[in-house]
Amino acid sequence: MAKQKAAVNAHYRRLSLGQKIARDFSHNKYKYLMILPVLVYLALFCYKPMYGIQIAFKNYKITRGIEKSAWAGMYWFEQFFNDPYFWRLLRNTFLISGLQILFCFPAPILLALMLNEVQHNRFKRTVQTITYMPYFISLVVLCSLVKIYTQQNGLVSEIVAFFGGTKQNWLQDPKYYRLVYILSDIWQSVGWNSIIYLAALSGIDMEQYEAARIDGASRFQQMLHVTLPGLLPTITILFILRMGSILNVGYEKTLLLYQPTTYEVADIFSTYTYRISLGATSGQPQYSLSTAVSLFNTIVNVFFLLLTNFISRRATDSSLF
Amino acid sequence: MKKLLALVLALCLVLTAAAALASADLLSREGVYPLNSDKTITWYSQDSHNIHSDFADWHDSPFHVNLSKQVGVNIEWVLPTTGADGGVFTNTLLSDAGSNIGNLPNIMEAYFMNNANQYLDDEVIWDLTPYLEEYAPAYWAWLHSNPAYDKAMKTDDGRYYAFGFFREDGGWNDSYQGPVVRKDWLEECGLEIPKTISEFENVIRVFKEKYGAVFTSAFSPRFYQMGMSGAFGAYGNVNPDYLYEIRDGKVILAQSTDEYRNWLRWFSGIVKEGLVDTDLQTVDDTNVQQKVETGLSGIAITSMGQMNLWNNHMEAAGNGRPWIGIPYPTNDAGEIYSIFGGSGIGSITGVVTKSADEETMKLCLQVLDYAYSKEGFLFWNYGIEGESWVMSEETGLPAWTDLVAKDTSNDPMIKYNGTTWSGSCIQATNLLYLKNSQASIDANDAWYYLGMGRDTDQLDKVLEVTSGHKWPTGVTFTTEESDELDLYNASLGTYVVEQCTSFLLGNKDVNDDGLWNEFISGLQQYHIDRVLELRQNCYDRYLSR
Amino acid sequence: MTTVTKPKVNNHIRESAGSKIFNGINAFLLVILCVLTLYPMWYCLVASFTSTSYLSAHQGIMLIPHMFTTSAYSLAFTHPLLLSGYKNILIILLVSMPINILLTLFTGYFLASKKVLLKPVIQFLIMFTMFFNGGMIPIYLNIRDLGLYNSLWALILPGAISVYNCIICRTAIQAVPDSLTESAYLDGANDLVIVFRITLPLIMPTIAVLLLYYGVGHWNAWFPASIYLQDNNKLPIQNIMRSILIANSNLLNSSGSEVDRVDDFAETIKYSTIILTTVPVLCIYPFLQKYFVKGVMVGAVKG
C-alpha cells in the first residue's frame, strides 16, 4: 500500500507543471467550476476598483480623476505621521480595540456556554431571542439612550448614589468614557455574537458528554473539558479575524458619544478620517489623505492578523491559513 | 470713504427693506417666460429644494413640477435620495467630473465657493462671465444692485461662475437662535428683562437661588454657538466652523484674543459656581426639553423652533407659554457687541457644469435667471398666485391660501416654494413672518441685529459691529491654498475646540497665565501662522476685487 | 479527559446537588441579563405608544404606555415610501440571499478541500479583498461603469459574498469528517453532488447563521443605497426609516431660517422606527434558531 503510494507520488513529481495543472483541472474540475463565479465576482467588484489605492500616493483631485491627478509619493503618509494628533489617535484606537478584545470578545462565548447549560429548551430560546434584540437598535438611538442614562440625574447616577457614590455626568468624564463605551458595546452585541458559538455548540457530539459523565466529571468540568474544546476552532478563527481588524473601530458610535472634554481618550483613526473626508464642512474631502490613513490601518491590521495566525498555528491546530 | 459708502448703501437697503418688504427692486421679465423650449435640462440640488416628506419623489412636488411649466423648459431633477447625506451624495456625483463629465447634471447647487478656481481651471464648470449679461439679465441687475453681491459671486480675477442665495432684506439671518427666559419667573422675582451681561448673570443667580434652576442650552445651538461672547467684544465659538474673525482688516484667530479670554473667564466662573447645567455637553434637544419642562431651567439659549416646542408642552401641562426671546446681552456700558449678520449671502450656489454644451448652458442661464426676476421671485417664494398664495389687501404682501395655511403636515410651504432653505434664489423676508408663531417672530426680532437697532439711534453702530467681523462669504482660494488649508483644518479645529472647552468648563483655569500661554503657543504646532497668512492673502484679494 | 476517581454512587448524589446549584445560578444570571437587556427594549415599545408630551416630562422607570397613542406609527405609516421600502428590501433579500449562500457554500467548500493545486493562489486572492479595497470613489465609478447605477443590482451584486462568512463556512465544512466525503467519492459522486447532498445537510446550523448574517447585513445596510440610487421609490426600508429619524432630529440644525412647526414626534418616532425595523427580523429568527438548538451533526454522524 505504502509502496504504491510512494510510486504514485514519484510519478507525480516527474510531471511538468503544465501536466500537473492539466491533471489538477481534470481531477478537480467541479471544484474549479464552483469557484469560477466567485472569481468573476472578485475580478469585477473587488479587483477592478482596486486601482483606487494609488489615490494614497497621488494628489487626488475630484475634478481631474485618478489618472490626471499628480503623483505625490509618500507625502500624505508623512503628513499623517507628522500630525500632532497621530500618537494620540494610535493610542486611543489600540486601547479601545484592546478593551473590546479583552471584554467584548469573550462575553458572547460566556453567554453561549451558559446557554448551553440550560436544559429547559423554551427558557433557552427565550433568553436567546431577548439578548440578540438590542443588535437592531440603531446607533443613533442607542447613543441617545446612553446619554440619557449617564446624565447627572440619570439611571447610572441613581444606582451609584444608592451605593453611596456621588452623582455626576459619566459620559463627559474622560475617566469613565471607555467604560461606558465598552459596556454599551457588550449590551448591544453579546446576544447576537453568541449565535455563531451556539451553532458551533450544536455540532459537538453528545457521546463526548456521556463519556465525561461516566468518567464522573461535574457539570463545570464537562463545560471545561468538552464544551470549550469543542468551541475552540471557532473561537480561534474568530479571534484571528478580530485581530485582523484591530484598528477598525467604527466612527459612528464615537462621533455620537464623544465630546470636546473626552477627545483626549475618545478620538480614534476613524473619527479623524471622518473629519477629513465625509465630515468636511468646508473645502473638499481629503481623499488622498484619508486613503493613506486607511492604507496604514490595513497594513497594521494585516500584520496583526498574520502574527496571530502564526502564533495560533504553532500553539493550536486551528489557524486561518 | 469706501466704508462710508458701504454703510450708506447698507443703511438704504435696510430702510427700504423695513419700509416695503414685499417689493424687492427686481427686473421685470414679463413676457419672456415660458421659453417654450423642447429641451430637457438636468438640475441637481444638494439640500436646497428638498422635496416634502409627503411626496415620494419630485414628480409629485408642485414646486418642482411647476417650475418647469413656469420657465417652459423640461427640468429633470436630481436630488439626493431621502435619508442620504447630501454632502456625500454631491461628492460621489462630482467624481464623474474626472472620468465622464457627461454624467454630471447640467445645473448643480452645492458648496462650490472655496474651490471655484479649481472647478473653473479644470473645466468642470462654465465660466459665465461672457454670457451673464445677455442670458441672465435679471440676475445681472440684482448683482449690480449691491457691490457686496457682485463681489461674492465671482473669483478674484473677476470670473463669474455661480448663482447665489440672497436674502431680500440684505441681512443674513443668523438669528434663529438666542437667549430665552421664563417670563413668569421674571415677574415673580420682580426682575426686568436683562440687557447687560451683569443683569443677565443676575437673572441666572436669582433663578438658581429661588428655583434651583440652572442656565442651559438646547442641543442644536449648544454652548459652543451661544454667540454670547459678543458681550465681551469677542467673536467666535467653540466650533471649528467659527474660528476666524476680521479685525481692522486683519484676519485673526477669534479664540486667541483677550476678549475671548474674558468671555471664557465669565463662563467658567458661573460653571464653577454651579449655575450652569452640568450635562451641557451630552444633552440632546429632548433632554433639554425635559429639563426645561420640569423647571430645571428658567434661562437658556435655544432656537425658535425649540422655544415653540417648549411652550407647547408647557401649555399642554397647564403652565401657560412662559418662554420668550430676549436680546443678546450687551456689555455693561450698554454697547451692542453681538456679532451677527453680514452680507446676506448664502454659501450654496448654483453652477452650470460642462455636461451642458454651449446651447444648453445658455438655456440653463435663462432658467436660473427666472428666480431673480420680479415674477420668478414671487413664484420661487410662494408658488403660483391664486393657488398657494394671494396678495393680502391688509398688508400688501403675499399671504398663504388655505391650501398651505390649513395643511397640517410639517412645514407645508416647502411643497410650493424653493427658497425655504437655500439655493440659487432670493429669499423673501416675509416668509419668516408667514411661517412662524408671533412669539417666535418676537424672539427673532429680539435676537436679530436689525431688530435690536430698529428703534434706536444705534443702527449704524450695530451694522458696523455685525458686518465688520465676519469672514466674508464668497471668498475663493486658489487650488494650492485650499490644498494647504484643508490639510491643517481638521487638527487645528480639534485643538481649538478641545482647549477652549477645557477653559470654558473650568477643567483648565483660564486665569492661569501659564496655561493660557501654553494654549496660545501650542497653536504653532498646528500651523496657525501659515493658516492666517493664507487667509489674509485671500481676504486681501477679496477686498480688492 | 481528566481522571476522576471517586465512588460512583456518592458522585451521583453530589453531582445532582451541585448540578442543581449550578443550574440555579446559571438561570439566575441569565434572567438578570434578560432583564437588563429587555428593559430598554421594552421601554422602546412602551415609549412608541406613549404620547410625546407625557414622554418628555417623564423621568424614571416606565412599564406600560401612558396616554396611549399610535400617532408615531400612523406618522410612519403615512410616509409615502414606507410600502415601497418594505417591497424593495424584500426583493433584495429574495434575490441576494440565494446568491450569497450558494457562493459562500462553494467558496467554503473550495477552501476546505485538500489537494487542489491552485487553492493557495485563489485563497490569497479571496483573503486579499478582505483587507484591500479601492475606496469609495473608484467603487462608485465602477458601479456606474457596470451600468448598475440607480438599480437594485447595485445593492445586491457588490456584496455577493463576504469573505468573513466564507471563512466561517469553511471552518464548518472542515469539521465534516473526511470519511463521509471519501465514501461518496467511492460511490462515484462528484463534488457538486457531495456539496449539496452531504456537506450542506451537515452544516445546516452554520448555514442558518450565515442566512441570518447576510440577511441582517442587507436589512441594516443604508449607505450603498444612499449613494447608488437616485429614485426614492427604489430605496429599501432602512433608508426610509433613516430619513424619518433624521428629518425629525436635524430640521433644527439647518441655518438660514427656521420653522415653528417642527415635528413634535421626534422622540416617539425614534422608538417606533426601532420597532418597525426590528419586528420583521424578530419573526424570522425563530425559524432559523431551531437549526442550531437541535444539533444536526450528532444525528448525521451516528446515522
What is the CA-based Rg of chain B, rounded? Answer: 24 Å
Strand order of the largest sheet of chain B: 2-1-3-11
* CATH superfamily placement of the largest domain in chain C: MetI-like
Give the low-pLDDT segments of chain B: 1-23
User: What CATH architecture of the largest domain in chain C do you see?
Assistant: Orthogonal Bundle
How many domains in all of chain C? 2
The first-level CATH class of the largest domain in chain B is given as Alpha Beta
Number of beta-strand segments of chain B = 14
Tell me the domain tally of chain B: 2
Question: pLDDT below 50 for ≥5 consecutive residues: which ranges of chain C?
Answer: 1-13, 250-263, 295-303
**Percent in strands of chain C:** under 5%
CATH architectural name of the largest domain in chain B: 3-Layer(aba) Sandwich
Number of strands of chain C: 0
Largest sheet of chain C: none
The quaternary structure here is: heterotrimer
Q: What characteristic shape of chain B results from the CA principal axes?
A: globular
> Helix count of chain B, per DSSP?
22
CATH topology of the largest domain in chain C: MetI-like fold
- Helix count from the secondary structure assignment of chain C: 15
Largest sheet of chain B: 4 strands, mixed
What would your notes on this structure say?
The complex is a heterotrimer of chains A (321), B (545) and C (303). In chain A, 70% of the residues lie in helices and 1% in strands. With 321 residues, chain A is mainly α. Chain A has two domains: 2-71, no CATH class; 75-315, Orthogonal Bundle (MetI-like fold). The mean pLDDT of chain A is 88. By secondary structure, chain B is of the alpha/beta class. Chain B is built from 22 helices and 14 strands. The relative contact order of chain B is 0.16. Chain C folds into two domains: 8-72, no CATH class; 79-263, Orthogonal Bundle (MetI-like fold), CATH 1.10.3720.10. Helices cover 72% and strands 0% of the residues of chain C. Chain C has 15 helices and no strands. The chains are: A mainly alpha (321), B alpha/beta (545), C mainly alpha (303). Chains in contact: A-B, A-C, B-C. At the B-C interface, helix 3, helix 11, helix 12 and helix 16 of B face helix 2, helix 6, helix 12 and helix 13 of C.
